[in-house]
Write a structure and sequence with these properties.
Low-confidence stretches: none
InterPro entries: Homeodomain-like_sf, WH-like_DNA-bd_sf
Helix content: over 70%
Largest sheet: none
Mean pLDDT: 90
Number of domains: 1
Number of strands: 0
Pfam family, one: HTH_23
Strand content: under 5%
Radius of gyration: 13 Å
Order of helices and strands: HHHHH
Shape: globular
Length: 75
């Protein structure tokens, strides 16, 4: 059974990104001067690396649903 199948069975969102995607996001994060854009990128990277939406929301002072929306828009 694949990880994607298991996630669907238990209704767990799949926040996995490839190493290439993470590297591209980190490069974009370093290259931006816009704080809001940097925070959106940071939220996506952190979610993909195991942080919960709630943890990220607390650090960035945004709503957890906003964190999830950033990831959905990235995908």
């Amino acid at each position: 059974m694949t990880l994607n199948r298991i996630c669907r069975i238990f209704a767990m969102p799949d926040y996995h990104l490839t190493d290439k995607q993470l590297a591209e996001l980190r490069a974009a994060h370093r290259g931006t001067r816009d704080k809001r854009e940097a925070d959106r990128i940071k939220a996506v990277v952190l979610l993909a690396t195991g942080w919960t939406a709630e943890q990220i929301a607390e650090v960035l002072q945004i709503d957890p649903n906003t964190v999830r929306n950033h990831f959905k828009r990235y995908r």
